[in-house]
Design brief:
This protein is mainly α. The protein is 68% helix and 0% strand. The protein has ten helices and no strands.
Length: 168
């Protein structure tokens, strides 16, 4: 029998909710061996591809290169559940470059989230600490006249650091 991809997709979609009467009738009129063969033909047609070396290199670059990819996969084996590792491996085994890209990208985000990443400044300068400085001599006097200045050594240190950052 010819692979009816639309029918298989409809079965999949409705299998997550409830089968329509039309689908149930179509299923009851099918020979079970034809349905099984249709599924096998579909799987064979969509079986894994082999990725060439250039594509593999590009995919590893998604994680930051060969070494970072290896670090990420090693981390995943130690820190993710067996089910999560199996899902990642399943996507990678299919050999579809786009699916692999998203699987690597998702794993890379988890790896970086767990291990931290050095930020990269693209343009401009460091954030200013404008709100963290005195703008006038009157502000300094007000801070020193606060009762906390006499009683709280941490507050005094905060005022002194803020004064150091000020251009007055």
């Amino acid at each position: 029998p010819e692979v009816d991809v639309n029918f298989l997709d409809k079965l999949w979609d409705e299998g997550n909710t409830e089968y329509s009467q039309e689908t149930l009738e179509e299923l009851s009129n099918m020979d079970p061996s034809d349905l099984a063969q249709m599924h096998l033909d579909y799987r064979n047609a969509n079986q894994s591809q082999q990725l060439d070396d250039q594509t593999v290199g590009q995919l590893k670059n998604v994680a930051g290169g060969e070494q970072e990819y290896s670090n990420m996969v090693g981390w995943a084996k130690q820190n993710l559940s067996e089910q999560e590792v199996a899902m990642f491996d399943s996507v990678m085994d299919r050999g579809d470059p786009m699916s692999c890209f998203f699987a690597i990208q998702a794993l890379s985000y988890r790896f970086n989230d767990a291990n931290g990443v050095e930020g990269e400044m693209l343009t401009g300068k460091a954030a200013s600490r404008e709100g963290d400085s005195f703008k006038s001599q009157a502000e300094v006097v007000r801070a020193m006249n606060d009762p906390k200045y006499e009683d709280d050594s941490a507050y005094r240190q905060e005022v002194m650091r803020k004064l150091e950052r000020s251009d007055i």
